[in-house]
Amino acid sequence: MAFRKDFLWGGACAANQFEGAWNVDGKGISVPDLCTNGTKRNPKCITTEIRENRFYPSHEAIDFYHHYKEDIALFAEMGFRVFRTSINWTRIYPTGMEEEPNEKGLVFYENVFKECKKYGIEPLVTLSHYEMPYALVEKYNGWADRNVIALFEKYCYTVFDRYQNLVKYWLTFNEINGGVTPLGTTLSLSTVRGYEGPVADAPVSPQVRFEALHHQLLASAKVVAYAHEHYPQFQMGDMNVFLTAYPLTCDPEDVLAAQKHNHVINWFCSDVQIRGEYPSYMKRYFKEQGICLEISEEEKEILKRGTVDFYTCSYYMSSCITTHEGEATVEGNLAGGAKNPYLQASDWGWQIDPDGLRYSLNEIYERYRIPIMVVENGLGARDEKAEDGQIHDSYRIDYLRRHIEAMYEATEDGVDLMGYTPWGCIDLVSASTGEMAKRYGFIYVNKFDDGTGDLSREKKDSFDWYKNVIATNGQCL
Ligand code: BGP
């Protein structure tokens, strides 16, 4: 069994969940900097001021800002060919509204990308991963206001220009469809304020949510078109959370309900970003939901011109859709829906479904016929040290092995798969709960939810396992 020779094996992280250094070298306040941590039952919340006695997970996170050399060396030791990370907008433009960028912020990412290149690791950069300058939330209610589009463009053009010789692969918005999930009203912050929930905050109406999403889709198309025009060497991608949904039964009503669910949740944004126009099923959905979107001819042109070169998604779980009442629902599964009796779930309720990955990759490829990369996948687990002081994370190896096997089967089915970057390749702060206890990494970081820990790094069993997977190009699992 073998993946293609140039298969991009690597790992993924995001600025706000691992950099720390939230207020150094001129960085401005970003939305996650105002989020406290939380738990499954007691969601994190967003505050409008920083208080001394509160714990804000993003403030120190795992301090990649000061450990990047050590961490990239470990990624290189595993044989990474690609490293997915994001740029924190507030390091470049602290409030989003300055005329000139912050040089120290630009230098930081330059150093990170150079360090990657030193080891032959290709950076894959997300321009917006669940963060935005808080100043833009205060002034504009974030993406709800179309003025933010031009500010985002300015930021993107600055980093394109600066890193044009270091970065080839770019993604515009992380999980751009996150705000249309069943938890949409709580996840709406991802769309309006650029941050993933659920957080305890006032819900945003569907009208505002879809307007904000429209602004993000326009912003994405604009920067993609600009990149194609000015930097032909760039490869531009979208990024979706793919939440595979099956009909719970063979009742045709369940099948139709699942199709409708998939349209809105899984296909809408990528249809716009790849086919260059709003799909017709959304017109019906908007009508049913009482949402009115004014899309001008000029905007339609923008969407047409700014289509992406490759498709990317995160994949963690699947769900079931039914019209029947009284079916058990899955608690914690971000996809919501009914419980699938054939699947097991993680400690956080995410239903584990490797076959669903093979199925989804086939569906995606048949629809778009462009290269695909799985840029997030993994098992969030509570890692405990054994008596020998090591982390024996066989459960993580088992999860990843089954998903890599599924990806391989998809390539055998004919899917053009270009790479795989498991999420949180080094332990970091959880996006949904703000916890450190939910760990994904091959590398353990000594840092805990009460803020203690010396931040030292240690290899888990999965480190050597993944190293061997990459060395054998996926043959030895
Ligand atoms: C995705 C996000 C990531 C990441 C991951 C795992 O939705 O893009 O930022 O956090 O999920 O989620 P969590 O951290 O909530 O376990």
UniProtKB/TrEMBL annotation:
Main EC class the enzyme belongs to: hydrolase
GO-annotated biological processes: carbohydrate catabolic process
One Pfam family recorded for the sequence: Glyco_hydro_1
Gene Ontology molecular function, alphabetical: 6-phospho-beta-glucosidase activity
Hydrolase is among the record's keywords: yes
InterPro entries found in the cross-reference section: GH, GH_1_N_CS, Glyco_hydro_1
GO annotation, cellular component aspect: cytosol
EC number: 3.2.1.86
Superkingdom per UniProt: Bacteria
Keywords: Glycosidase, Hydrolase
KW Hydrolase (keyword) present: yes
Family: Belongs to the glycosyl hydrolase 1 family.
Protein's recorded name: 6-phospho-beta-glucosidase BglA
Gene: bglA_2
